[in-house]
Design brief:
Layout lengths: L1 E2 L4 E4 L13 H15 L4 E7 L3 H9 L3 E2 L12 E7 L2
Parallel strand pairs: 2-3
Antiparallel strand pairs: 1-2, 3-5, 4-5
Length: about 90
């Protein structure tokens, strides 16, 4: 995770090997990273993923990430989706 002085954390990469999928590891990682970002004073988490990463997209949306506009140095790549989760 990359923390920004602008008050958000950016999730750069997450990967669960196929043999370990379906065990809730992605959810546990996102819960842990959300708590860490919150403890560092971050107000939100942002991420970028590919349009073909359907399992990841389902996980992010279940974890209350909402679609948002491109952020930071990202342009409007049509093969990418951008998400944000507000931390409370």
């Amino acid at each position: 995770m990359k923390l920004s002085c602008a008050g958000y954390g950016e999730l750069k990469r997450m990967y669960v090997r196929p043999g370990f999928r379906g065990r809730g590891l992605g959810k546990m990682m996102l819960d842990h990273l959300s708590a860490y970002a919150r403890s560092k004073g971050m107000q939100s988490l942002l991420l970028q993923t590919g349009v073909y990463q359907t399992e990841a997209i389902r996980l992010y949306e279940r974890m209350e990430f909402m679609r948002t506009a491109p952020f930071g140095e990202y342009g409007g790549d049509p093969l990418c989706l951008y998400y944000q989760k507000i931390l409370d």
